[in-house]
Amino acid sequence: MSLITFSNTRNQRLSPAFNGVFESVLNDSLISDRSVSKVPAVNISEDKSHYSIDLAAPGLNKEDFKIQLDKNILTVSVARTPEDKTEGRRYTKREFSYHSFSRAFVLPESADNSAIEAEYTQGVLSIRVAKKEQAKPIARQIQIK
Length: 145
Known about the structure:
The protein is mainly beta. The longest helix is centred in the first third of the chain and has 11 residues, at about 15-25. It has 2 helices and 8 strands, in the order βααβββββββ. The protein starts with a strand and ends in a 14-residue tail after the last strand. The protein has a domain at about 1-5 and about 40-85 and about 95-135: Immunoglobulin-like (Sandwich). It is elongated and about 85 Å long. A hairpin with a 2-residue loop joins strand 7 and strand 8.
């Protein structure tokens, strides 16, 4: 299974040592990668019978997610509009924000597209995609003649 990603080539011209320095300096500014890239982190794993996709997305409700399958591309998206509940408050720093995002995953041919389950628990969206029967490893004892 592969993740469809878009690379950020802005800092690739500098050496890794300089990247770390600039990222730490820019971390609290409006032009930092954290402010520009609002996609949740993901873990992808597999076992004998399933592929698992775990998306870290705290602060959301399961109703906020939209999961779509188009051919072999599984897309997870959230469309939220920021709520402005200042009610007399004047912020000196405001980091809480929930933005829209979309992540797409290319499912392998061994994935059973008709057996996909999703669950949102404690800030993690867990998606399980079953493997087709012919893709599951077969273990058996071979009799010697």
